[in-house]
Design goal:
Blueprint lengths: L2 H12 L6 H12 L6 H11 L5 H13 L3 E5 L5 E5 L5 E5 L5 E4 L5 H11 L9 E4 L2 H14 L2
Helix pairs in contact: 1-2, 2-3, 3-4
Length: 151
């Protein structure tokens, strides 16, 4: 067991929860994943080892893990919510053209979050949303198209 998984399981125990087979399977999948996973991705991974686990169990498990702040979910645009460990806190930038997802440190939007709090008295739930825009590559492609059109 890795140090990360030990700490994660200890968080569950500290919250008074048992480390059930479903919770362990979901957490292991999230720990081993290099990226974000949907509930359906998790089902596909988990059922390779535990075919008796159903999608409803995955959703219930994710809800429990999120309520104990072990797991976070984020909406990366119009698609399904994706999940990652809360200990891996970061922000998301999503290109609306190519779908690129960039993970950036929380500090990247600290000033923005502080300004929202100061000016509007509103505390952002930062890890729940993605900032949607256009990536450098798509902007360059758009600029190239614009330059060719005006020639």
């Amino acid at each position: 067991m890795t140090q990360l998984s030990s700490a994660t399981y200890n968080e569950l125990k500290a919250a008074g929860l048992k480390v059930t087979i479903a919770r362990r399977a979901v957490l292991d999948a999230l720990i081993e994943s290099p990226g974000h996973l949907t509930a359906e991705d998790l089902l596909e991974i988990v059922t390779k080892t535990y075919p008796e686990i159903h999608i409803s169990t995955i959703y219930r498990t994710l809800d429990t893990l999120e309520s104990t702040r072990v797991v976070d979910h984020v909406h990366l645009g119009h698609g399904r919510a994706v999940y990652h460990l809360a200990s891996n806190s970061h922000q998301h930038l999503v290109c609306e053209h190519c779908g690129l997802v960039l993970q950036v440190p929380d500090e990247t939007i600290d000033a923005f979050a502080s300004a929202i709090d100061r000016d509007y008295g509103f505390a952002l739930r930062r890890n729940h949303f993605a900032v949607i825009g256009t990536c450098r590559s798509c902007r360059a492609t758009d600029n190239d198209s614009d330059n060719r059109s005006s020639s």
